[in-house]
Amino acid sequence: MSKLLKNSMALAVASLLLGATVAKADLLEEIKKKGEIVVATEARFQPFEYVEDGKIVGYGPDLMKLVFDKYLPGVKVTQLDLPFQGILPGLTAKKYDVVITAVTITKARAENYAFTTPIAEATTGLLKKTGDDSIKTPADIAGKPVGSQAGAAQLQVLKDFNAQLEKDTGKGISEIKEYVGFDEAYADLAAGRIKAVAQSGANVAPLVKSKPETFEFLKETIGPKTYFGWAVRKDDDSASLVALLTKGLLELKKDGTMDKLQEKWIGFTYELPDDIGEPTM
User: Which stretches in the chain have pLDDT values below 50?
Assistant: First the structure.
């Protein structure tokens, strides 16, 4: 066999392999081909995602079902309930296709993950016990123990606010307690073990509404305006999937369905941008 023929055959084989790689690269096409999409959720983040009667329910699951029913009909949805601390690293490791849970969009996260259009506002504020007159403004948490969820953007906002408090007044929070889930933080707040919880207004709205005698949310926030979105790996393979999810969500926003679901699950609606733009934190 001549050297020219050998080189031609090698090039042909390489082209075939390259073509197979390209064909295999698109995540959305792979999902459609296998007939299954694997979704990661942290179902301890009411009203976005939580477990009720053995099922994951909430604002997020309702949005997800509407988008998937229209754009991925017949595709099986395998939804995993996982601790938030490992949910984004698991996405990077390709343990699932997408994170459909309320993820605060930050600069650091946007560098590593592709996000859909925002689904709600995530701006951080402070939850306190009803009638606690020792906390009337955010600055009043100086010298007091405050909690939030480990790995959450709200925890970082709390730490940043504490650093500013120390700089401005010379006195910061006495202890920042980190919890696996926000429910544990709420329980400690109700029991008096901490004095406040750093969380988004959307998350605590149903809690305050159901237990106004126990919990109260300060009107003044402690961080920049931020938003929640769904996350996909930031690579060429996943671009079509995040585009599909964003298209579906924007349609639900445009026809008023998103507003109706926000009223149902959160109790009020948000004016949301169509894209994440430049994250504020």
Answer: 2-23
